[in-house]
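Worked problem 6 (solution included).
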Amino acid sequence: MKILIVDDSRVCRRMYRKELEKGGYETIEASDGIEALEVVHRNEIHLVVLDVEMPNMDGVEACEHLRSEEFTTRFRGDEQAFGQVLPIIFVTSNPTFEGRIQSFNKGATDFILKGFRPGRLLETVNRILKPRSALEGLTALVADDSKFVRRMLIKYMREEKINIIEAENGNQAFDIICERQKEIDVVITDLEMPGMNGDLLCRKIRRELGLKAIPVVILTARTEQHLLLGLFNAGATDYLVKPFQKEELLARLKVSVEVIHDLERRIAAQNRAMDRQQERLAKEHARATNQAQVATAVLHNIANVLNSVSVSCSVVHRRIHDSKVKQMLLAHGLIEDHLDNLDNYLTRDEKGKLLPEYLIALGKRIESEQITIAHELKDLGAKIQLMKQAIESQQHYAKGNEIHEPVSPDAVLEEALLVQSNLIETHQIQIQSDLNAPNQLALPKAKLVHVFINLIKNGIEAMRAAETRVLSLESREAQGAISVHISDTGIGIEPEHRKKLFTHGFTTKKDGHGFGLAYCAKAIEEMGGTLEVHSEGSGKGTRFSIHFSPASN
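Solution. The predicted structure is:
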């Protein structure tokens, strides 16, 4: 085959010529696009290697001419098939994607970047001019008791670069398949052989070995219709009547192999579809599992708030039960009893003289009661609102449309402290607060509140048996990043427990469920932050740190 090399560099032309001539190609050279067009006019050219950057007429312009009707009708002269075009390989120094697109738009068959490794040009040319046979590289088992027929088949197939395994009869062929079935791509067997016929061999391949996909082509001199139909009933993919031509054999093999390849493609497509379906189901299952875990954690958080609500209700109930209003009513009764001589009663009666001061003190006590009850009712309202927000947040989360709003971590910490105020008071916890992150983050507020509630509650519970009970809250902001630290002076965390601390269901508490910290870690991750824990060991306290990078703000 004749290849035209077009390049303004003599060195490049010589290098390309040596490589292509080693591959058995004949070459002609041209130094620019104009000369290349003249060469194509005068010669039968099978492929052009075309430099893009050249004087007079560059490769792109030359390619446009070669793709014109004038040259396409000349391509390969009388041998041209309708619709064929002259293959053109661009050699270019432009490595960009846009350059590649431009090359193909101008009519390039392929392109190579300059500076390519030795052998690359020849590989590209071979791929275009000598495309690999569909049968190349296959392994065929040939079973025939005639040595002459085997030799003929082997010759035909080796010309197509098919690997051959020989068998002299059906029994030998079956033994080979049993031992080497993964190597064999196609079986070609004679019908009539001593020991085991070809149709029986085919049945055993299909039924005993379960090899349904491997093509089996049976050779026979018989032409009876019922016999040929029987071959298909035995499981044959195809048959070939002797004597046959090489082209007929190769055509049957190609069809048989293509049928299998088509089946394999369909199976692969079905497998991909099944994989996608399984992936979708796995994602749905993971999401459902995740939603269930989050819902469990939200219920856990609401239970924490409800405990606080219960304490607040108890405080209000106790205040009302122990209210001094009853004493006020008694004092009111004394005044009513002495309305006729009230001045005399208040100035001369021993009990009456005490009544004004008693009423003043009683008024102050009742005012204090009202302030306390009002404060508790306000807290109750805030806690109920917090539970409402948690439920709404979970509803949005389940629908996949969580609402993000501007949130100040410092303000959210204060809300969380309010929820746990009764627990803090009950356990006599000292609070050290150093909050210096006033800027806002776009986050689901209810989710962040419940993270802080959980971490504060966790710290309080860790200090039940501690002599010093200090809960420290810190927040810092630096270069757009915000960090929040919640520390306690409690029992600390053993090293072997730290890695499992955020695992759903893991707990070291006798009455724990393992929901709280797992929820915190997942919630912070979903909000674009990180949650870390640090403890030097048993009895040395714990520090939880939350970090939000500028990117998550």
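Discussion: The chain has a mean pLDDT of 82.
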